[in-house]
Amino acid sequence: MSNEPSASALVPAGQNPDAETAPSTNGKLPSSTVQYSPLTTHHSPRTTSPPLLLFEQVSKWYGTVLALNQVTLELTGGITGLVGANGAGKSTLLRMANGQLKPTMGRVTVRGVDTWDWRARRLVGYCPDVDAFYEDLSGRRFVWVMARLCGYTRAEATRRTESVLERVGMADRADRKLRGYSKGMRQRIKLAQALLHDPELLILDEPLSGIDPIGRQELLELFQKLAAQGKCLLISSHELEALEKLTNHVVIMARGRIAAVGTLQQIRDLLDDHPLSVRIDVTGARDVARQLLAMPEVLAVDVAPKLPGEPTECVVVKARNPKRFFEQFGKLVVEHALDVRRLEPLDESAHAILGYLLGGSGKT
Question: Which helix (DSSP H) or strand (DSSP E) does residue 176 occupy?
Fold first, then answer.
């Protein structure tokens, strides 16, 4: 099974370049092999067995709302981080991966079997983002009940319960009632029930949400141990910084689409090669345009006339290396006290990616 991360690309619509790289993992755990289209096309070594998780041109509608839009994704091993702002489609993608939802179009499979088939579900462990406990039960009793619901005998359920509680560091705290658990303890119990049947694939939806720094570090170490033991983890979060400590491989989602796939360094490098168009509403637009043209990262500037009802003129800048451009523009604003009314990237995919790479939430 290959654990090499495949390349990712961010390209203009209508292009379909090929990319093939094998970047260093920089000392982190092996990343998942992920293939993504239509924005990216990758070539991975042929394998004889079906991929662990495969989305093929998947779309999901909720009435008139399009939650997922033509998603293609392949995952074979290691840890993959799934990031995106609230409403980006992360939870819908994860629920389809574990068989809770069926796609409106396309197909989702685990080892070649449709995810709602019981044979696929035996390979998947799921840790949801919301709690749904029997609060009067102890953590140990809750996990044991889940084992029984999986069909194990009493003896086997007891054995597996003790094993997973030890694995998640809850063996000595599991006799307390769930209603008295901290957020971190509740997350560990959810993870324990997901591990009961020893699945190949673990799907964890916002497992770090609401966790204190100490508990977060403990969970990150636990995820690394599980990956080292051969588990494949797909972990969603809206916090890129936490995932960066766990894996160098991420999938960035925006508005139901996959905006980018790859290592963070690959995505940063590819953004440098993909000029970003930015709209700037600023007083004295023509003077600002001349100053912008002097910047080494600026490729072109266009000044749009002031429209009725608009307080200022609009400048549209095409720039390379977005991070350096925004750093330079910020200095320009401070030095000349510019009256900037609006700053908006016009490329949706780059907009979402840029938000994360600059330390934001993808919502600018």
Answer: none
